[in-house]
Design goal:
Chains A, B: Keywords: DNA-binding, Repressor, Transcription, Transcription regulation. Two copies of one chain form a homodimer. Chain A is built from nine helices and no strands. By secondary structure, the first copy, chain A, is mostly helical. In chain A, helix 4 crosses helix 5 and helix 4 runs antiparallel to helix 9. Chain A binds a DNA duplex through loops.
Amino acid sequence: MASNRQKEIALAAVKLFEQKGYHATSVQDIADEVGLQKGSLYHYIHSKEDLLLQIAHEAITEFNDNLQAVLDTDMSAPEKLVKAVENHITVSVSNMETTTVLLREAFSLGDPQHQVIQDLTDKYVDLWTQVLEEGARSGEFHVREPKVVALAILGACNWVYRWYRQSGQLTPSQVARVFSDMFLNGLTSDNHPGVQQ
Amino acid sequence: MASNRQKEIALAAVKLFEQKGYHATSVQDIADEVGLQKGSLYHYIHSKEDLLLQIAHEAITEFNDNLQAVLDTDMSAPEKLVKAVENHITVSVSNMETTTVLLREAFSLGDPQHQVIQDLTDKYVDLWTQVLEEGARSGEFHVREPKVVALAILGACNWVYRWYRQSGQLTPSQVARVFSDMFLNGLTSDNHPGVQQ
DNA sequence: TAATTGACCAAACAGTCGTTTGGGATTAGA
DNA sequence: TCTAATCCCAAACGACTGTTTGGTCAATTA
């Protein structure tokens, strides 16, 4: 139901919101990017804020769906954690602009729009916490504060958009492996993976 | 040299930037907060942007100085890491408003002002990386990608301002301990601290 | 062919923005 | 006492904001 023009406008908005930030991007900027008069945009969007809400909503929903899919498998807890980290980093790097808008600009939404995103974000933390609680129950993880640990892991992953560059040394998967290796084995532990394919 | 009024204005700005964001805060808002006409503020500040720069600069400088002080001690690498995490989280929680402005709003600075903060932030990452490289050299840490691991730890710590509430269960020090326990020992390792005082 | 719809423009709306200016007060120094 | 600096106000500056309105043109439908 979303026309080409609507997608085009959303893409332009993502690009500009990422480059300049939500407030520093004017409706005029978006109109210029797609080659329309700014008034004409209002045939496709309800408001500038609604545009941001849609972008953020789509982004957080993808993260949630991916993590729920991992939880629904019969993997072990450590396997789930590795897979979840891999998913999160892969998705956030390959949709870097959208992820940046979600993590950096969603705060600019007023109520009640902001609450929609906040609720979905809370849900995401919940799912991560479930992974850790599962491992705690099975004895695979030693975790006394599953939620705090979940927030630590999520924080590390959500920081990636701030520093990852395509031109860098490591692929998203390699970064994910460095991350989950530390989360699972720690820095001082002995059982670290050797060189493997 | 900074007068009372200047400090008062800076404090008002921090409070409002944290609550509403930099762009959503008008010079009028700040003037109202300190009980002046907005034009009168310009006897104390060069520009709204300069106000943000000062706030961010002071914040990142404190983080840098603290971490440098830890590096200058003769602690072991694991001890330095624990201390650095403790410092970072304690500081960011007790100056939550300022930290939020640094981490969330500094992006709104235009060049070359943004580059000043970026350089100091890069320096901070460097210092963290040094901690890890030290541990790698001494054999205390098993780290193949010290910089990526530093960014992981820093990400976890820099996310705290997004979720920590004074009303929550854990003190900043307790959160720091959960964090560094995972960083050092991992979730699957056996040598976790028991209940200790 | 006639009527209707959707896409789009140009202009206006009603503000708000950060910053500058010129001039009163009040205070401090010479 | 005269001078100079400091503090602050009131007003204006020009530019820009997101959104609405009325209308034109082409394509689609009946």
